[in-house]
């Protein structure tokens, strides 16, 4: 059985003080047995958030990191720096990073491999643009991104990865993919994992849907055979809505 995982992606929202106050509101509430609850916050909020969530089952994630251990990479943050703070997850290759910060399949792969050196669970984002969907290229794009991201991982590592299928046209737009369409693509991604690794790894790997998930539609996604959770932007920013997402999983 795959444990459902709800991950909030705060993007560039919330100061450290705001993160600490959010943590107080969700403690004991966004904690549901059998559901993994993760908040991916801006770097500056990570220390306050990990401290405020100590003793809860809510995990903390970052939204990016650099694959090198250290070096002359101005403005970057390493996996060791995240690990020291008690961060357990890291989002890799979010479409906003691919679009605005020149992330490529190659850098996504380097980060995915590096995450394991620091006990960080990678949440690897894949998904097609609107024009790619309209051209019937959804599966082709997801295949290219998924295969590239997982290249070089051991079977054991691959089984621990979380993949987030996020059709780009559905992110922050209010236009979500239907649960059935999302499930079809996610089942296809699972087949790709079986081809690249083996059937057991494909059955173990968790694949989320992301794109305008809200408390009122989360259950539809969670009711699908292959969808193991959600990566949520906008609706993860309010404590009450985040709690409902976790409860809905
Ligand atoms: C995201 O940021 O990954 C996301 C899915 O955003 P939203 O839920 O706002 O569409």
Detail the topology: elements first, then pairings.
Blueprint: E1 5-9, H1 16-26, E2 36-40, H2 46-52, E3 59-62, H3 79-84, E4 89-92, H4 95-100, H5 105-115, E5 121-126, H6 130-134, H7 138-150, H8 155-160, E6 162-165, H9 179-196, H10 199-204, E7 206-210, H11 218-222, E8 229-232, H12 239-248
Helix pairs in contact: 1-2, 1-12, 5-7, 7-9
The structure holds phosphoenolpyruvate.
Salient structural properties:
249 residues, 8 strands, eight-stranded parallel barrel, 42% helix, alpha/beta, Triosephosphate_isomerase
Distance N to C terminus = 14 Å
- The pLDDT mean sits at 97
Oligomeric nature of the chains: single chain
Tally of helical segments: 12
Portion of residues in helices?
40-55%
Secondary structure tally: strands: 8
Percent of residues in beta strands?
Answer: 5-15%
Numbering strands along the chain, what is their spatial order in the largest sheet? 1-2-3-4-5-6-7-8
Radius of gyration from CA coordinates: 17 Å
Which residue ranges are poorly predicted, with pLDDT under 50 across at least 5 consecutive positions?
Answer: none
Protein name: Triosephosphate isomerase
Catalytic activity: D-glyceraldehyde 3-phosphate = dihydroxyacetone phosphate
Subcellular location: Cytoplasm
Pfam family, one: TIM
């Amino acid at each position: 059985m795959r444990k459902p995982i709800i991950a909030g992606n705060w993007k560039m929202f919330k100061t450290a003080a705001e993160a600490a106050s959010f943590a107080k509101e969700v403690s004991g509430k966004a904690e549901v047995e059998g559901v993994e609850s993760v908040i991916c916050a801006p770097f500056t909020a990570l220390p306050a958030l990990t401290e405020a969530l100590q003793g809860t089952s809510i995990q903390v994630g970052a939204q990016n990191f650099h694959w090198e251990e250290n070096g002359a990479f101005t403005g970057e943050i390493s996996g060791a720096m995240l690990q020291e703070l008690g961060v357990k997850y890291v989002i890799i290759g979010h479409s906003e990073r691919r679009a605005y910060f020149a992330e490529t399949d190659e850098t996504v792969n380097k980060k995915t491999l590096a995450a394991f050196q620091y006990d960080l669970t990678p949440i690897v984002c894949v998904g097609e643009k609107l024009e790619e969907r309209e051209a019937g290229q959804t599966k082709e794009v997801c295949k290219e991104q998924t295969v590239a991201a997982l290249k070089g991982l051991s079977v054991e590592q691959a089984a621990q990865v979380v993949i987030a299928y996020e059709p780009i046209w559905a992110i922050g737009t209010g236009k979500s993919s239907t649960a059935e369409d999302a499930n079809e693509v996610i089942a296809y991604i699972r087949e790709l994992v079986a081809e690249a690794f083996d059937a057991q790894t494909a059955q173990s790997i968790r694949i989320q849907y992301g794109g305008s998930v809200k408390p009122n539609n989360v259950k539809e996604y969670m009711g699908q055979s292959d969808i193991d959770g959600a990566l949520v932007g906008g609706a993860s920013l309010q404590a009450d809505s985040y709690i409902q997402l976790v409860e809905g999983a």
